[in-house]
Amino acid sequence: MKDIKNIKIKMNNGTSIPQFGLGTYLMNDEAAAKEAIKYAISIGYKHIDCAFVYRNQKVVGQAIKESGVKREDLFITSKV
Q: Which residues have a Cβ under 8 Å from the Cβ of 42 and sit 6 or more positions away?
């Protein structure tokens, strides 16, 4: 069985982004959100899906910082 975290989409600039990411919609409980994000990163997720309207940017940023993974090794996507 293929690990879905490793299925990628090639962008026009040649970069490949993981097709599946952790969605952060309705992650309003800061402690639970931080743990979920850190756990997802620890098991290999490299794509975190966000949006300004979710209003959880602070906790997403804190979780990424605490994960120990470099920011440039992650894809943080949003909606316009």
A: 67
Contact (Cβ atoms closer than 8 angstroms) between residue 8 and residue 75: no
pLDDT tens sequence across 17-55: 999 999 999 999 999 999 999 999 999 999 999 999 999
Task: Report the C-alpha gap between 25 and 49 in whole angstroms.
Answer: 8
Percent of the chain with pLDDT over 90: 90
Selected catalytic residue, list 25, 39, 45, 54: 54
N-term to C-term CA, the chain:
34
Q: How far is CA 25 from the centre of its chain?
A: 11
Catalytic: 54? Answer: yes
* Measured CA distances, 52 to 13, 38, 70 (Å): 25, 20, 22
Q: Model confidence over 33-43: pLDDT tens digits?
A: 999 999 999 99
